[in-house]
Specification:
- The chain is α/β, with parallel strands linked by helices.
- It is 33% helix and 23% strand.
- The chain has one domain (4-261): Rossmann fold (3-Layer(aba) Sandwich).
- Helix 7 (167-181) packs parallel to helix 8 (197-212).
- The longest helix has 16 residues, at 197-212.
- The chain is globular.
- It holds the Pfam family ABC_tran.
- This is Fructose transport system ATP-binding protein.
C-alpha cells in the first residue's frame, strides 16, 4: 500500500523529460471528431491549464489522458515511456489522479475515510490478515500529515463527516485524496466552479501548494482570472485541435479568449 509520504515524493522524472506527454492524439465518435491530432506536455512542478469553449475537446482530451477514453491514434508517454491505458484504473495505478466536478466523496464518511476510500489499510499482523481489521488510527494520522503537508488550514479535524463540511472543504478533501495517491499527476476539473470567492482562493492556494510539493497539475477551468493566477502555461483547445499554448506573461486574458473563440491567432 502506498503511503501519503511516499505519494508526495514522486518517482524522479529524467531531466528535461515531460512527466506526461501526448503526441498527436486523435479521438472520433462516428463522424464527430473529438480530438484532431492534439499534443501537450506537462513538466514536473508545473500547473498546466486547459481552456476552450464548449465542444472544443477539453473533456475528450482529459479522458484520453486519464484512461476514460482510448485514443484512436497518437501516443501517451509517462516519464518518456509510452503507456496504454485501458481504463481509469490503469491511469490511477500509474499515478494519475483526477478530481471531477462531482468530487465523488462519500458524505457519510469522515475526512480520513474519504482519503482512503477504496484503498483502506488493514492493521498489521493477524488482526489485519485474518480478522480484516482496519488501521483506522494509522489512516487518520496519515490523513492529518497529508492535510498539514498541503497546507489545508480549513480541515482541522479529519474525524468529522464530510457532509458537515462546506463546499470548499469538500473540494479540499477530494484534492487531498488525489494528491495522496497521484504520485505523478493530479488533474482538476473545474475545481472552483461552485465555490464562493473565499473558498475559491483556498482551492487556488492548494493548487499552488501541490506545485510546491513537486506534483504537476492539469487544471481545466472556465474561470480566466483563476487560470491566469495559478497557471504556468495555458493550453487552448478549439474545435478539437490545440489552437495555442501560451503563458500568463506572454498573453492577456483578452488574448486567450480571442484565440479560444477564433477571433485571433497566437
Amino acid at each position: 500500500m502506498t503511503t501519503t509520504a511516499e505519494a508526495l515524493s514522486p518517482a524522479p522524472t529524467p531531466t528535461g523529460v515531460p512527466v506526461l506527454e501526448a503526441k498527436r492524439l486523435v479521438k472520433t465518435f462516428g463522424r464527430v471528431v473529438g480530438l484532431d491530432g492534439v499534443s501537450l506536455q506537462l513538466h514536473a512542478g508545473e500547473v498546466l491549464a486547459i481552456i476552450g469553449d464548449n465542444g472544443a475537446g477539453k473533456s475528450t482530451l482529459i479522458k484520453c489522458l486519464t484512461g476514460a477514453y482510448i485514443p484512436d491514434d497518437g501516443q501517451l508517454l509517462l516519464d518518456g515511456q509510452e503507456v496504454h491505458f485501458k481504463g481509469p484504473q490503469d491511469a490511477r495505478n500509474a499515478g494519475i489522479e483526477t478530481v471531477y466536478q462531482n468530487l465523488a466523496v462519500s458524505p457519510a464518511l469522515d475526512v480520513a475515510s474519504n482519503l482512503y476510500l477504496g484503498r483502506e489499510r488493514r492493521k498489521p499482523g493477524i488482526l489485519g490478515s485474518v480478522f480484516r481489521a482496519l488501521d483506522t488510527a494509522g489512516m487518520r494520522q496519515d490523513a492529518r500529515d497529508q492535510v498539514l503537508k498541503l497546507g489545508i488550514s480549513t480541515l482541522q479535524d479529519v474525524t468529522v463527516a464530510v457532509e458537515n463540511l462546506s463546499g470548499g472543504q469538500r473540494q479540499a478533501v477530494a484534492v487531498a485524496r488525489a494528491a495522496a495517491f497521484g504520485s505523478k499527476v493530479v488533474v482538476l476539473d473545474e475545481p472552483t466552479a461552485a465555490l464562493g470567492v473565499r473558498e475559491s482562493n483556498q482551492v487556488l492556494e492548494l493548487i499552488e501548494n501541490l506545485r510546491g510539493n513537486g506534483v504537476p497539475v492539469i487544471l481545466i477551468s472556465h474561470n480566466m482570472p483563476h487560470v491566469f493566477q495559478v497557471a504556468d502555461r495555458i493550453h487552448i483547445q478549439r474545435l478539437g485541435k490545440r489552437a495555442a499554448t501560451i503563458t500568463p506573461q506572454s498573453h492577456t486574458m483578452t488574448d486567450a479568449v480571442a484565440i479560444m473563440t477564433g477571433a485571433a491567432q497566437a
